[in-house]
Design a protein that fits this description.
The protein has helices at about 15-25, 35-45, 60-70, 95-125, 140-160, 185-200; strands spanning about 5, 30, 50, 75-80, 125-135, 165-175, 205-210. The protein is α/β, with parallel strands linked by helices and about 220 residues long. The chain has one domain (about 5-210): NAD(P)-binding Rossmann-like Domain (Rossmann fold), CATH 3.40.50.720. Helix 2 (about 35-45) links the parallel strand 2 (about 30) and strand 3 (about 50). Helix 1 packs across helix 6, helix 3 (about 60-70) packs parallel to helix 4 (about 95-125) and helix 4 (about 95-125) runs parallel beside helix 5 (about 140-160). The longest helix has 29 residues, at about 95-125.
Amino acid sequence: MAGTVIIGAGPGIGRSVALRFAREGSPITLVARSAATLDPLAAEIGTALALTADVTDEKSLKTALDTAGREHGEPDVVVYNAAIIQADTPGELSVEGHLAAWSVNVVGAITTAAHVAPGMAERGSGTIIVTGGMPEAVPAYTSLSLGKAGVRALVSLLDTEFGPSGVHVATVTVAGAVAKGSPFDPDDIAEHYWRLHTQPRSEWEQEIVHTGLPVSGV
C-alpha cells in the first residue's frame, strides 16, 4: 500500500481514520493547519508523516501533497476531512464569512482532488473520500449545509470524471454530532472509510450515510 493521506487530521474522525488505516499497514501522512493538532496523533501512530498546511492556501496544500508523494509514493487513499463547523442562519454571515467557510468546506477538497486524481487515474486505481454531513439542509447551520451540499455535488462530478479510470470517489456523510461513545463514535465512522477503499469496483458506493446505527462488522 503506497499510503494514506488524511487532510484535516485532528481529533475525532481524522484520528480514527488514521488509526484504522495504520492498523492495516498503510503508511500515513497527516495534514493539518497547526503542529499542535498534528503532534499528538503523529506520536500516537509513531511512524506517521506530519505536515502543516492551510487548505485555503493552494500552494501550501499542494506542497504537502507533493511531499507525501515523495515520501510514500502516489497515495492509494486521500481523505479530505477539513471543515468549518459553525452555527449561522440565512443572512447572518457576511460575504467574507461565507467565502471563508466555502473555501475550507469545498474548495480545499477541489484543490486536493484535482492534484491527486490524475495520477491515480494514470495508475488505474486510487480512492478519494470526502467527509460529508448535513444530509438535509438545516437553517441554523446554513454555511455548513451549503458546504456539504457542495461536497456531494463535487463527489458526483469527480466520479464522472475519474471513475472510469479506476478512481473511487465517495463521501461519508455523517448525520449527527461526532462524539466518542455515542452513536456517532468516530471509530465506528472510520469503518466506512475502510469499507469504501476495499470495495470491489463492481460494488462501489458513492455515498455512505452514517445515521448512528451500528456499523456492520464492528
